[in-house]
């Protein structure tokens, strides 16, 4: 997979998923694309985790557990 190091203004450059099932998303994208999850704490709670998805050590996207406010507003993953 080519590594992109520059993006023209207005071009797509980052995929980020807000999901109701972070563990399932990590397993799915890991199996589908070979992406490895790298978790970082976003706050005090055990579910306050931001996961960067990497391939060959390079970030390709990210995911996190959908916020309760998002789910209450009817936002879909």
Describe the protein in words.
This protein is α+β, with helices and mostly antiparallel strands and 77 residues long. The chain has two helices and four strands. The protein has helices at 22-33, 68-72; strands at residues 16-19, 36-41, 49-55, 58-65. A hairpin with a 2-residue loop joins strand 3 and strand 4 (58-65). The radius of gyration is 14 Å and the shape is globular. The protein starts with 15 loop residues before the first strand and ends in a 5-residue tail after the last helix.
List the helices and strands and how they pair.
Layout: E1 16-19, H1 22-33, E2 36-41, E3 49-55, E4 58-65, H2 68-72
Parallel strand pairs: 1-4
Antiparallel strand pairs: 2-3, 3-4
End-to-end Cα distance, whole Å, is: 26 Å
Mean pLDDT across all residues, rounded?
89
Query: Treating each run of at least 4 consecutive H or I residues as one helix, how many helices?
Result: 2
Order of helices and strands: EHEEEH
Sheet-strand content, in percent, reads: 25-35%
Helix content: 10-25%
User: Biggest β-sheet: count, sense, barrel?
Assistant: 4 strands, mixed
- In spatial order, strands of the major sheet run 1-4-3-2
The low-confidence runs, each spanning 5 or more residues with pLDDT under 50, are: none
Summing up helix and strand content along with how strands pair, one would put the structural category as alpha+beta
Q: How would you sum up the global shape?
A: globular
Radius of gyration over C-alpha positions, nearest whole angstrom: 14 Å
Number of beta strands = 4
